[in-house]
Amino acid sequence: MRAAVWTAPDTIEPRQLPVPEIPAGWALVRTEMTGLCGSDFSILHGTHPRAEAPLVMGHEITGIVEVAAETGPAAGTRVTVEPLIHCGECHPCSGGDTHVCRALKLYGIDVAGSLAEYVALPATALIPVSIAVPLQEAALAEPLAVAVHAVSRAGLTGGERVVIFGAGPIGILTALVARHQGAGSVLVSEPSEARRQVAEELGFATVAPGEDPVQAIVAATGGDGADIVFDSAAHPSVAAMLPRAVRVRGTIVLVGVYKKPVELDLQALTFAENTVVGVRVYTRAAVERAVELIESRELGLDRIPTQVFALEDTRQAFDQAMASGRVLKVFVSPAAAPAARTQESS
């Protein structure tokens, strides 16, 4: 089978590999789409703490069951994948919180993923998605699950004034989920003009170019600060603003992953009795809810700018994904035509 293999920092090579063997209880999935995300970027650059070359990356997986397991989705079923590998023995796993397993691993990071024509996966990791849903919307299930989990962790019940720092894929999806769940208002802060424009096209208010984000947030909330602040940017400059952007007894949700420790005014958070909530990937329930939202077509995911690259053009796909431009989500598809004939939607 054709595959794109990460072989060294900043190096991806097209290779022919054997079709994966299928252990008992596993299924063989024919890859339709693989989404690229920040974790993949760190693997590409050789900075991910766990990934080891050579590796077939890809944990945002959408495909068709080619060979079914004895239980689970039947052959021909379109599926998304919960790509988490947990130990089942640590304290979090014993309590049902397998997504924060102390030895958590992922397909496409710790073991082979879906940047190939086929990927073998446990049947228990597969979640059916209606074939009637446009493929590029179905392929958003994994990052959408992050957003669903983040909004759940925030405790949003309806009517809250919400601020999103960062209008990348996770920030925009979080904004969409928060609005769908009844947020009273959603304000997006994003320095990139292209991505700020996307947020506005999706109907969100944004912090104006050159305006101080904290001043804009305070003004938009009558001097109080936001009820809930989602940090999907994970940038030190944003961390410095969080205590001033949230109201007294408001909630800060850390959705993005900081690469190293940052300064945070804990005194301000203490005096304001703020709640700070971490988010790590997603629960199974969040993935299932993401699929429900995708199948409902209620979020308007078709308006998110995406681009599809051929498997042979995976390195170029990474370049586009890391450009942080108008295209919010980049996919790789074994069925796509190479080079100049990539498909774009907006």
* Total count of domains: 2
CATH class of the largest domain: Alpha Beta
Low-confidence segments, ≥5 residues, pLDDT <50? 341-346
Oligomer: single chain
**How would a crystallographer describe the biggest sheet?**
8 strands, mixed
By CATH, the architecture of the largest domain is named Alpha-Beta Complex
CATH fold descriptor of the largest domain? Quinone Oxidoreductase, Chain A, domain 1
- The CATH superfamily name of the largest domain is Medium-chain alcohol dehydrogenases, catalytic domain
Number of strands: 18
- Calculate the terminal CA-CA distance, rounded to whole Å: 31 Å
Describe the structure.
- The chain is an alpha/beta fold and 346 residues long.
- It folds into 2 domains: 2-140 and 304-345, Quinone Oxidoreductase, Chain A, domain 1, CATH 3.90.180; 150-278, 3-Layer(aba) Sandwich (Rossmann fold), CATH 3.40.50.720.
- The chain contains 11 helices and 18 strands.
- Strands 3, 4, 5, 8, 9, 16, 17 and 18 form an 8-stranded mixed β-sheet that branches. Strands 12-11-10-13-14-15 form a 6-stranded parallel β-sheet, with helices on both faces.
- It is globular, with a radius of gyration of 20 Å.
- The chain starts with a strand and ends with a strand.
- 47% of the residues are buried.
- Mean pLDDT is 96; it is low at 341-346.
- This is Enoyl reductase (ER) domain-containing protein.
- It comes from Pseudarthrobacter sulfonivorans.
- One of its GO terms (molecular function) is metal ion binding.
- InterPro entries: ADH-like_C, ADH-like_N, ER, GroES-like_sf, NAD(P)-bd_dom_sf, Zn_alcohol_dh.
